[in-house]
Amino acid sequence: MPDKLVTVATFSFGEEAHLSKAKLESEGIWSFVADDRFVSANWLYSTAIGGARLQVRESDATEATRILGVQAEVPPVAAGESEGCPECNSTDVHYERFSYPLVFASWLLQFLLFQWGMPLPFLKRKWKCNACGHEWKARR
């Protein structure tokens, strides 16, 4: 089964992501830049979509963050904490960095009131189970 892609860093501009991609590939780590063209074409939406995302294989994530000198985007699971949902024990979980409905609402309100829109980044930083919808914060 192929490795999943994980995001190791996000950037406001696609060019920054491609420079880090080149650094990783010079070290022999395959990487992929997601949403770089969308961010370049619509830079006002960069915060709303999370910027240009530099992704690597899950097995290379630790080495990639070491090479780039960044902290992992998704917090590591604390010792003793299962990787699954605490309610239903499903492993189909994901990390949400932003509250996208609030980011969209802030952009819409600014657009309607001021005829321009710069979305405000309402941080969420929670794990969410795709099976049952339960949300929880990672223990530190």
Furnish the topology, listing elements before pairings.
Blueprint: E1 5-11, H1 14-26, E2 31-34, H2 36-41, H3 46-49, E3 52-57, H4 61-68, E4 93-98, H5 100-114, E5 123-129, E6 135-136
Antiparallel strand pairs: 1-3, 2-3, 4-5, 5-6
Could you list some keywords that capture this structure?
single chain, 140 residues, alpha+beta, Alpha-Beta Plaits, three-stranded antiparallel sheet, 5 helices, 6 strands, 33% helix, flat
Give a short summary of the structure.
This protein has helices at 14-26, 36-41, 46-49, 61-68, 100-114, and strands at residues 5-11, 31-34, 52-57, 93-98, 123-129, 135-136. The chain is an alpha+beta fold. It has a 3-stranded antiparallel β-sheet with strand order 1-3-2. Strands 4-5-6 form a 3-stranded antiparallel β-sheet, covered by helices on one side.
Shape, please?
A: flat
Q: Which band does the percent of strand residues land in?
A: 15-25%
**What is the radius of gyration computed over CA atoms, rounded to a whole number of angstroms?**
17 Å
Order of strands, main sheet, comes to: 1-3-2
- Stated plainly, the CATH topology of the largest domain is called Alpha-Beta Plaits
Can you walk through the features of this model?
- This protein has 140 residues and is α+β, with helices and mostly antiparallel strands.
- It has 2 domains: 1-73, Alpha-Beta Plaits; 75-140, no CATH class.
- Helices cover 33% and strands 23% of the residues.
- It has 5 helices and 6 strands.
- A hairpin with a 5-residue loop joins β5 (123-129) and β6.
